[in-house]
Specification:
36% of the residues lie in helices and 14% in strands. It is α/β, with parallel strands linked by helices. The protein folds into three domains: 194 residues, Thiamin diphosphate (ThDP)-binding fold, Pyr/PP domains (Rossmann fold), CATH 3.40.50.970; 208 residues, TPP-binding domain (Rossmann fold); 199 residues, Thiamin diphosphate (ThDP)-binding fold, Pyr/PP domains (Rossmann fold, 3-Layer(aba) Sandwich). The protein has a six-stranded parallel beta sheet with strand order 3-2-4-5-7-6, with helices on both faces. It has a six-stranded parallel beta sheet with strand order 11-10-9-12-15-16, with helices on both faces. Bound molecules: magnesium ion.
């Protein structure tokens, strides 16, 4: 066990007892026990690619489990974590040592950054040197990818460490590596009663009462309290919904939260520069926040102010930074599983720390599942089950606050305008989705289609939206969609760009060849370049405003072309659209099919609006500048509504 996990491991209070039941007390080899343990924990499907290093494990693969291999460890790993997330369990990725582990680093880091539960499992030869065939210092590589690296060196540790890896991934919603000494797989181990090694974090009744009091305290009659719904694999969302609705509480969602309660008048929209003005207004005016769910996964500006603004809130900006020589301080109470709203101290920058004093300085490495730090009026709790917290909880709402938000909603709770052709394609799909109240999950890859989907899709049913925010590795769209289907067995709309399609073309071919009977609608937006990068060049003025189609492309374009793929050659039954109205009409008539379909949305180079080349995949978003804050401050709804949307770039 590596040092960084010791503290956490010691904190788990599992009891490892030999079982007295004769049936369960049999001696098993480690390999057989491995599968029995996963089956006991309701893991039905394994993702992986075989190799010599894992054959000793795979030869005992049980007949009542499913094995899925999309062709490489990277796609298998992306797929596994989405499956784990939406089965409210873990995704198991089995890879061979050597290149198998190397290919798995991207999905492992993705799981860590996006808070998806994934266990990367491989073996190691304890006698190998780093220079041996297919070997290197994998311990070092894996420790760079996740802080939760477990090793099993002795048969006597097998049950305990396997359980540690499983429970860490599940309870912390994160990526975990488990390396097993290949020599012990054939060793016999005494079976352990599995009831004793299934960890469940539970709050004491005292802790529950403390949270309930904290919530009631936050909702004082004249306080402007707002609920923020973040990401969560909420298995008991109805209890949260009942709490909000019965108490008539105003709420907003983050980009990852995205849950709308139908016909509820106190829903204020989605936060962020590609969200709704109404949500930003509510957040700006709120004096106290209750966050339910997970704000990690790129939703703080610890990663990037750019991404925080887009996907969540500009929450730090709104609630903590000085504006016009005035510091807004907002009380917060975080509630949720894995709510890791963290901020590290920045050495030598105390003014910044003071400035941000309402932020919680908390790490999920604190080795406990219940954390209550009253530091700066902020508390955070990590819990599995919301029921005891919200059950029949009555709070006093503020009717004046509710009324003012409702008034703002009337003016501001509308989709942002769509300007570019990409935006128009996606917004027309989103309009059909909302108007028909489709019970379809929506997933994306990464790129400008991703921003566009984030901007326009409003999903009402919980766990209907999966889109990256933090690591944002290109080419995850197909696996996101397939993973969601495997977990939920319902129709999926997948959106991917041409860059992502080229990156993960094997996944597209896999779906086309192996999943033709599944209700997967795969959209690919095609503009022949990496459009998010084009936006950067436009902002840098490498592409002049008057750049015409007839002008030769600059040398930068050589670096920015997506690989050419003749989609109709590979997928002759794909549906191809060249204009938005044809596609809008089609998707309106046929939002759902029982079988897999591929829809190609072509985006020409020419921009009919701005008459420039390369502008047709731009994303136009709210400009979080001083003027915008002033308009929010002064309740200038018409001006906010009419404010010009702008293109933005990370760099
Ligand atoms: Mg593109």
């Amino acid at each position: 066990m590596i040092n960084s996990t010791m503290k956490y491991v010691q904190s788990l209070t599992m009891q490892l007892k030999p079982d007295n039941n004769n049936d369960e007390n049999e001696l098993l080899t480690a390999s057989k026990y491995f599968w029995k343990y996963l089956k006991h924990n309701m893991v039905e499907t394994i993702f992986g690619l075989p190799g010599g290093g894992v054959v000793p494990l795979l030869q005992y693969f049980p007949s009542n489990m499913n094995w899925i291999n999309m062709g490489n460890e990277e796609q298998n790993g992306f797929l596994a974590q989405v499956y784990g997330q939406y089965t409210n369990n873990v995704g198991i990725l089995i890879v061979t040592y050597g290149p198998g582990i190397c290919n798995s680093i991207n999905p492992l880091v993705n799981a860590v950054k996006e808070n998806n539960p994934l266990i990367l499992i491989s073996t190691f030869n304890p006698n190998a040197s780093v220079n041996d065939f297919q070997n290197t210092d994998f311990r070092k590589i894996l420790q760079g990818a996740t802080k939760y690296c477990f090793e099993i060196n002795k048969a006597s540790d097998f049950a305990k460490n396997l359980s540690m890896a499983y429970n860490t991934s599940k309870n912390k919603n994160t990526g975990v590596a488990l390396m097993i000494n290949i020599d012990i797989l054939s060793s016999t181990i005494q079976n352990i009663n599995m009831r004793h090694i299934t960890y469940k974090s539970e709050l004491s009744s005292n802790a529950i009462n403390k949270i309930r009091k904290k919530i009631v305290h936050n909702f004082k009659k004249f306080d402007k309290t707002l609920i923020v719904l973040g990401k969560g694999n909420f298995t008991n969302f109805n209890i949260i919904k009942d709490f909000i609705v019965k108490n008539e509480l105003p709420y907003v969602t983050t980009s990852k939260g995205r849950m709308i309660i139908n016909n509820y008048p106190h829903y204020c929209g989605r936060l962020g520069s590609i969200g709704n003005h109404s949500a930003n207004y509510a957040l700006y005016k709120a004096e106290s926040l209750i966050v339910i769910g997970n704000l990690s996964g790129g939703l703080t500006n610890e990663v990037s102010q750019f991404y925080e603004n887009r996907f969540s809130i500009g929450l730090n900006y709104f609630t903590n930074q000085s504006q016009d020589n005035r510091t807004k301080r907002t009380r917060r109470c975080h509630i949720g599983r894995n709510c890791a709203y963290t901020r590290r101290k920045r050495s030598g920058n105390m003014s910044n720390l003071n400035h941000k004093k309402t932020l919680l300085q908390l790490s999920i490495d604190d080795s406990t599942f219940i954390i209550d730090k009253d530091n700066n009026n902020i508390s955070s709790y990590i819990i599995d089950d919301f029921s005891p917290v919200f059950h029949q909880l009555k709070v006093v709402n503020n009717p004046l606050w509710n009324r003012s938000l409702k008034h703002a909603n009337n003016k501001l709770l509308v989709p942002l305008a769509s300007k570019s052709k990409l935006e128009q394609y996606i917004s027309s799909a989103a309009e059909v989705y909302s108007s028909k109240k489709l019970d379809i999950a929506v997933t994306t890859g990464v790129g400008n289609h991703w921003y566009s989907c984030n901007k326009y899709f409003d999903t009402t049913i919980v766990n209907s939206w999966h889109s990256p925010t933090t690591l944002s590795s290109i080419g995850v769209g197909f696996t996101n969609g397939y993973g969601m289907y495997l977990a939920q067995k319902r129709p999926i709309w997948i959106f991917e760009g041409d860059g992502g399609s080229a990156f993960s073309f094997n996944a597209l071919v896999y779906l086309y060849e192996n999943c033709s009977d599944l209700p997967l609608t795969i959209h690919i937006t095609i503009d022949s370049y990496y459009s998010a990068i084009v936006t950067s060049y436009i902002i840098k003025k490498k592409i002049p405003e008057n750049y015409k189609k007839s002008d030769p492309p600059g040398p930068w374009m050589k670096t920015n072309k997506t690989p050419k793929i003749n989609y109709m050659k590979f997928f002759p039954d794909a549906l191809e659209f060249n204009n938005v109205s044809d596609y809008a009409s089609y998707i309106n008539k046929t939002p759902y099919t029982e079988k897999l379909r591929i829809i190609l949305l072509n985006i020409s180079d020419e921009d009919p609006i701005n008459n420039i080349q390369y502008g047709n995949s731009n994303i136009y978003e709210i400009n979080f500048n001083k003027d915008y804050y002033n308009m929010l401050e002064n309740n200038e709804f018409d001006k906010i509504h009419q404010s010009e949307l702008v293109i933005a770039s990370e760099d």
